[in-house]
Amino acid sequence: MITKEITKEGKLPLICITTPASKAVISLYGAHVLSWVPEGHEDVLFVSPLSRYKTGEPIRGGIPVCWPWFGKEKLPQHGVARTSLWTLEVAEERQDGTVRVVMSLMPDGFNGLSAKMEIIVGETLTQILTTTAGTEPVVVPQALHTYFNVNVQEATVEGLKDVEFSERAAVPVAQQEAPVLAFKGGLDRIYSGVEGEIGIVDPSLKQKIKLDRQGSESVVVWNPWRQGAKGMKDLPDNGWQFFLCVETANLDCYAPELGPGDSVSMGHIISVERL
Ligand code: BG6
To answer: Residues near 93 by Cβ (< 8 Å), separated by ≥ 6?
Structure first.
């Protein structure tokens, strides 16, 4: 079932999806997945209770789309996609019980550069972000900035052992690195050349979230911890405890370089299993 709603707070258009295997909510503002609840599980995504659903401001949580740049290399931080209203192209129930939604964006001032976001909701949550260059060559760093609903103080991340990373924090905090990544403080890293599946294990919720990336070479891992959260108006002081961002990305030397008219896709399949 597919229904369309408007959030009370900021009048943002939402698509609410119910399938036999899961429920999801997608905002056309940002092509942003706000919720994905597989049958028998809690929401796999975290959204801040203080998030502002307001045009011009990014939503705090869910899956923001960082495009066509990442970080502060230009302003606004993480690009214009997450604060743009996307056009709904397709919302269809399919014979296999899944729902497919496609949204598109061609922002002004980028020589015809465009993005398409395809989302499939069912037993898994699939997202594919396709970038097509306009009339000019362009480099497009990008990330699906997923806020996973976990107890970050107990969570561990599998699949990043021995992978090279760069620290983005001015004063990085030492973490437990092996045999799995565990969190002893705030973390802001870009892992590069990441192969294979990433597992996010949460003993509190007794589940493992699996992130199967396609066409993605980079993974960003971020949590602001206690100190970082204090400076964030749209996150409660204790909000950092309840999420971990693990982002499917192509950044730095892996940012796609496109000639005029060229296209490239990047995405992921998210699934969850009981421990
Ligand atoms: C992460 C970055 O992806 O996003 C962090 O690595 C950044 O450096 C974080 O602080 C949140 O960004 P924002 O713009 O949503 O507050």
So the answer is: 1, 2, 19, 99
81 within ligand 1 shell (Cβ under 6 A): no
- Chain centroid to CA 237: how far? 22
Question: pLDDT at position 9, please?
Answer: 65
Q: Is the CB of 59 under 6 A from ligand 1?
A: no
**CA-nearest residue, atom 15 of ligand 1:** 60
Dihedral sign (CA 183, 184, 189, 194): negative
* pLDDT value for 98: 98
- Quick one: tokens of 253? 């030397």
Mean local confidence (pLDDT), 43-63: 95
Span 233-251, average pLDDT: 98
Looking at residues 68-92, what average pLDDT do you find?
96
The CA distance from 47 to 96, in Å, is 29
**Number of other residues whose CB lies within 10 A of the CB of residue 3:** 10
Q: Quick one: which atom of ligand 1 is closest to the CA of 143?
A: 3
Question: Would you say residue 6 has pLDDT above 90?
Answer: no
d(CA 205, CA 243): 12
Taking the C-alpha atoms of residue 208 and residue 202, their distance in angstroms, rounded to an integer, is 6
DSSP labels for 13-55? EEEEEE-SSEEEEEETBTTEEEEEEETTS--SB-B-TT----T
